[in-house]
Each structure stands twice: as C-alpha cells, then as structure tokens.
What we know:
Layout: E1 2-7, H1 17-25, H2 30-33, H3 42-49, E2 55-60, E3 74-78, H4 84-96, E4 100-104, H5 106-110, H6 112-116, E5 121-124, H7 127-139, E6 146-148, E7 173-176, E8 179-180, H8 191-195, E9 200-201, H9 204-217, E10 222-225, H10 234-244, E11 251-255, H11 263-271, E12 274-282, H12 286-292, H13 297-301, H14 305-313, E13 318-325, H15 334-345, E14 349-354, H16 362-369, H17 395-409, H18 412-431
Parallel strand pairs: 1-2, 1-3, 3-4, 4-5, 5-6, 7-10, 10-11, 11-12, 12-13, 13-14
Antiparallel strand pairs: 8-9
Helix pairs in contact: 3-7, 10-11, 15-17
Amino acid sequence: xxxxxxxxxxxxxxxxxxxxxxxxxxxxxxxxxxxxxxxxxxxxxxxxxxxxxxxxxxxxxxxxxxxxxxxxxxxxxxxxxxxxxxxxxxxxxxxxxxxxxxxxxxxxxxxxxxxxxxxxxxxxxxxxxxxxxxxxxxxxxxxxxxxxxxxxxxxxxxxxxxxxxxxxxxxxxxxxxxxxxxxxxxxxxxxxxxxxxxxxxxxxxxxxxxxxxxxxxxxxxxxxxxxxxxxxxxxxxxxxxxxxxxxxxxxxxxxxxxxxxxxxxxxxxxxxxxxxxxxxxxxxxxxxxxxxxxxxxxxxxxxxxxxxxxxxxxxxxxxxxxxxxxxxxxxxxxxxxxxxxxxxxxxxxxxxxxxxxxxxxxxxxxxxxxxxxxxxxxxxxxxxxxxxxxxxxxxxxxxxxxxxxxxxxxxxxxxxxxxxxxxxxxxxxxxxx
Length: 433
C-alpha cells in the first residue's frame, strides 16, 4: 500500500501586491522569515499511527512540487484555512486519478461538510483515535464519510511523530508539541473549540525522547515547541525545562505574558537555551482586550506589559510581540500607537496581524450577524489580508496601516539598534548564570 501525506502550499503572509513586494524584496524581513519555517507535527503523528506495511511519502508543497502522475492507494491531506482552496484542488485531482482521499486538520474539523465535497472521508478532530479506525476501514474497503473524536485524547498515548520523514536540509525550525488545549477563549481564536479548554500534557520522558531524535536527525537545528500556550501548567513547565538543560538546544515557544511573574521559570528558560518567546499582546486598548477575552485575563495584564517585557528580556530571552489590528475600537491611530510601543519596549521582533474572522470563532459568528463579512475565498485568510468591514477605518486604510508598521520596524536602522540593545542584555544575562 502506498500513501501520500500532503501539506498543501499556503499563501504565506499577504495576497496584497504591495505587501508581497515588500516581503520578497526586503533584506531586513529575512530576520522575521527565519522564525517561521517548518512543518507542524500533525502529519508526522498520522504517519506514526499508520501500519508499517504502508509505504509513506510525506509531501510539503511549500518546499517541493506534487507529482500528480504518481500512483497512490491513499492520499491524506491536512490543512489550515488559508490552505483550504489548494487542498481541495489537490484532493479533486487525485480523486480523478482513482486514489482514495481523506482530509483532516483544523479547517476540516470546523468546515466538515465543505471538506467532504472534495474527499472520500473527513477526519474530524484529533488523529490519535480517528486515524486507526479509518485505516482499519480502508483496509476492509469500508470507509465512512466522517470520523469523529469521542473527546480529547490523552496526550500520553500520542505516538512519537515520524521526524525522519522530514527533509533534513529544508527547515530552519523543527516543531515539537508538548501540550494541547487552552483555558482561554479569545474571540478570534478557535484553539479551545478544536482542542478543548482542558490543558493536556505529554509525558516529559517522551518530549525529551523526541528532542533527542530531532537532534540526531537535524544538526544544529533550532526547536520550536508548537503549543498554543506552553506554560499554563507551571509545575509541568518547570520540570520539562529543567530536563532540557543538559540537551544544549536552542528553542522557542508560545506563551502568555504572565510567564514574567515566575522568576524561577524565567531562569530555567534561559539555562535551557530558550532564546525567543512568542507572546500575544493582541492590543494596547483595554476596550479591545475586554472584547477579545471575556475572562478579562488579558485586560488585567495590560498595565504590566512594559514592565513584564523588560523583565523577560533582561534574562536574555527575546520576545516576538504579536499584535492584531482592526478591532472594533481601533481607528487609524492604532498603527502609530502600536509602533511607538514596539520601539519603546525594545521588542526583539514583532508580528502585526489583521483581525481575521476564521471559521469556528466567536468573532466570525459576531461579524456574520452584523453583516460585516466580506466574500473572499479561503486563500485570503492569511492573517495579513482584510476579510471584513472595520468599524472605524476603511478596508484600504487597515491594509495600508498594517504594511506601514512592518516597513518601519523591519529596516536596517531599527534592527541595528535592536542588535546593540540585545548584545548588552545578553552579556549581562550570561554573566549572571
């Protein structure tokens, strides 16, 4: 049996011609690009769940072309929303050639019926329970239209991903997952809906084993822990990070700003080789933060943003600050305010995303009720393109303002200033270890 596991080509960053020109021609934006390279573990987990008698070919269309003339018994496709249009094209082409096609991933889990129009079967939710059932039915030539998860899986039962299927020379970062689930329910995010609000953890022993496997395959690679919020369980995080210290790796992850409140954990992060934390600040407006997060968690931290940034970065750990523009309380002044904050706080790097009404989010439901959704195809849902009608500025102003922040931050002068700032911090941090 021959199976192709495919990650479709994505529209990385914006479809806007001016944005793409800047992205392709700016030397300074390469600084940002190197943070985002790699393939999530989803298809690697699917490969690990597949019987050994299957010959598996992993295809990441972002780094290689698909040969549609190859014969496969089964084609499995996993995609996010901005990859959906391309995923359906791939699925339709292989079905024409007689292959069975199964689609899964974040988008298919939300847009189940839509995905089924292009596939013989749809995996809804996590693969660990669904994929073995699907494969068993496939071998009996009796596949079902849909395979639904009965509930969140125990991560300690998740297999070690098949990292050896990745091409060693194609990725700057290899992603490893340690947790799933997020206790917060941000309006623009579907993570808690897809993976649940319960925070689930993988056995530390397995995480360490995965790191060792990755190190043995990819020399001098940086590791990204691809969790939505890695440090929710502080006790687990501290124990895991302590175990990473002897492995001498360089790594990054995503978390929320409250990590600054744990001095011991910050010390362990630095010792273990953590060089970057991706932190979602979202907005500098209390009104926007209250709109985003009903629990008020983010709004309560707003007054501490500058203090916490300085504290984290004083440990020699850079912060990539993630901001979203286009909230209901944003007008044209949001770009200058955000830009000034980024420069004054000396953030190591930044990401400005445009508010995006992704399927499965409370945001999309609200904007749909308010008749503010614009009719665009899924490949426009890049997080850098406008797909709705803003309240206090035009679509063009939102798109233009977002690009203006990137052009200001990612230029030679600003990056040189940042380098000088972080050299001082770095030498001070290592002298304290």
